[in-house]
Each structure stands twice: as C-alpha cells, then as structure tokens.
Amino acid sequence: MDRRPLLVIDGDNLTHRAYHSTPKTVRGADNQPINAVSGFFGMLANLWTAESPRGIYVAWDTLGVETYRHRLWPSYQEGRIFDPEILQQLELMPGICAAFGFGTGKAAGYEADDLMAAVAACEVEDGGTCLLLTNDRDAYQLVSDSVTVLSPRRGVREMDRIDPAGVVERLGVLPEQVPDFKALAGDSSDRIPGARGIGPKKAAALLLQHGTLDAVLEANPRPGETELLLRFREVVQMRPEVPVTLPSGPPDWTAGAEHLRSLGMGRLADRLATLAEG
Is 1 part of a structural domain of the chain? Predict the structure, then answer.
C-alpha cells in the first residue's frame, strides 16, 4: 500500500490566497475571472512536485449556509465580505477538483475544517499520515505524530511545517488543548472574544497549570462567563463525524488539464498535463 502522506487542502483558504496573489487581470473564456483558479492550480502543481503525496483531498466551506457554529455563537465570523469575483470562482472549484479526480468534500452545516478532521482521522486510522495545507490555526488541534500542518508564507514555495512541538512553540499549548486555548484567549478572525482579561499568554499559562478549560474554571471561577466559555470551546472544536470518501490514488492530471483548457487556461493546462508523466 502507498504510504506516502495524503495532502489535505483547505480549499477556501488556498483559493483566497490564490485570488489575492494572482493579478485580477487574468481572465479566461468569455472574459470570465479565473485568477483564483489559475493561482490555486499553479500553487498545487508546486506542492505536488515538492511533497510527492499519495493523493489529494480538498475540503470546502458551504458559504451562506448556517453551521452548528453559528447556532452556538451567532456572531461567529460575522462581517466577512467577499468580492463577487472570488465567490464566482469558489462555486466552480469543487467541480474542477472533481475533474482532476481529487477527493472532495462539501457538506451543509459543516466547514472545511470538519471535513479535514474527518479525512485525517480516516487516513491515520488506516495507518497513513497527512499533510494539512492551511493558514488556519484551528487546524493545530489535529496535529500529531501522523498529522502535520503546512502553513504557507510565500505562495506555497515557503512553508512552515508544524508538528506537535511547533504547536507548543506557537501557542504554548499541546494540540489537544487548542480548543480550550482559543475559548480562553479568543480569536478575532472568528469573532470569538474569549474570557475577559485573558490573552494568549495567560491562557497558555493557565492551561499549562491546570490542563483543561474545565479545570481552569474550577480553580478560577468566572461567574457569568463559564457557560459562554464552554460554548466557545464547542464552537472551535472540529467535528470529524461528517462522512468523507478518500482518494484511492493520484490525480488524473490529463483529464483535469483538459477541463482547465476548456476554461481558457491553456498554458497552465499544458504544465499540469506534464505531471501525469512523472
């Protein structure tokens, strides 16, 4: 059995990165915007060559659909506004990825995070390892000896490889403590305020001393905040119970390249087609 790592990608995260790093003047057939699509697959080609994974799985958010996180905390990710051009391309992306034979997942009520957690759990249970491509620190809770986060810094040519020691270095807590840490410290990007008067350093120190959020609250009662902090932990805790189907082999670069060619990306299609020869 092929035991190279499975590359698991936060599709929305990489698409946004591609959209903002690829000129918006890049247009395709019928003058449609394709800069995010072009940048996504250009970066993915670099990743495939550099990492030689056994296959690729791409997880997607369901934008505009309420998730369990919104029901727990209505202000979750409130105020995010996206350009129409990236929304248009995000709608295309799952179908394009399917043309390449990638594993893909998009489930109403769940986020890409949850799908990534489910894929990682399945792959590890089967004796494999995973590389998770994302800048979202929520993914740190999935890190283990078998799961590494790849966090891009410049495109995807320069990346931080985050193992369990890397999580401790960056947050001051163990991977399994990340949901407790974020509940206490808060996360402005997700509109989670955290506990009053507790920032990242104090949150890490309290968890180092007590181990869990429950133990922190038992030792340091916070009347009026306890229920809310426990709810914040539930918001940031990934739910891997969503069904997923893992890819059984490498992508079909030839078929995927032809799909891109039909969208007006001839040069990129030529480049990706050569990956089938490797």
Answer: no
Q: What domain range is 174 assigned to?
A: 170-236
Q: What digits encode the pLDDT tens for the residues 13-41?
A: 999 999 999 999 999 988 999 999 999 99
Pairing label, strands 130-133, 103-105: unpaired
Which residues have a Cβ under 8 Å from the Cβ of 278 and sit 6 or more positions away?
49
For residue range 210-224, what is the model confidence (pLDDT) as tens digits? 999 999 999 989 888
Question: How many angstroms separate the first and last alpha carbons of the chain?
Answer: 19
Report residue 79's pLDDT band, with 50, 70 and 90 as the boundaries: low
User: In sequence order, what E strands does the chain have?
Assistant: 6-10, 55-59, 103-105, 130-133, 147-154, 158-162
E runs forming strands in 142-198: 147-154, 158-162
Judgement on whether residues 12 and 104 belong to the same structural domain of the protein: yes
Tokens of 213: 């959020």
Report the DSSP pairing between strands 6-10 and 55-59. Answer: parallel
Instruction: Please count the residues of the chain.
Output: 278
Contact of 38 with 91, CB cutoff 8 Å: no
Closest Cα partner for 111 from 239, 7, 245? 239
